[in-house]
Amino acid sequence: MGIKISRPCSEDPNEFIAEGSFGRSFSMRRLCSLLKKHVTDLKCSESLGVAKFEMDGRTVMLYRNGRIDIRRVKDLRDAKAIMTKIREMTNPAFE
Q: Hey, which of 14, 72, 81, 91 has its CA 20 to 30 A from 6?
C-alpha cells in the first residue's frame, strides 16, 4: 500500500491530489456493492473498472487494478488516513 502527493489541486493550491495503489486488484462487482452500503454520491462502473465517490470532503477514485486517487487532501498524512479507511471498508472486494 503506497501513496504520494502528486500535485496541487486546481481549485485550491493549499490542497493536493494524492495517487497510490493498494497493490491488489478489485472485483468491481463486489466493490460497487460494498461502496453502495458505505458512501453517498457513488458512481461505479463495473465495465469501466472505476468507482468515484466523496468521503470526508475529498473526492476518491478507485480503479479495478487497485489504484487510488484522492483529491483535496491536506498533506501526505491526511492521504494515508483516508487510504487506510478505504482499505478497511473495501477489503472484501480485493481479488
A: 91
- The alpha carbon torsion through 27, 59, 57, 95 (nearest 10 deg) reads 10
Grid coordinates given for 86:
478505504
The answer to whether 30 and 93 are in contact (CB under 8 A) is: yes
What values do phi and psi take at 63, rounded to 5? -115, 150
The 3-class SS string of 24-88 reads CCECHHHHHHHHHHHCCCCEEECCCCEEEEEECCEEEEEECCCEEEEEEECCHHHHHHHHHHHHH
- Cell representation of residue 34: 460494498
Name the grid cell of 72.
483535496
- Grid cell in block for residue 58: 475529498
Q: Which tens digits make up the pLDDT trace of 32-42?
A: 999 999 898 99
Reported pTM: 0.91
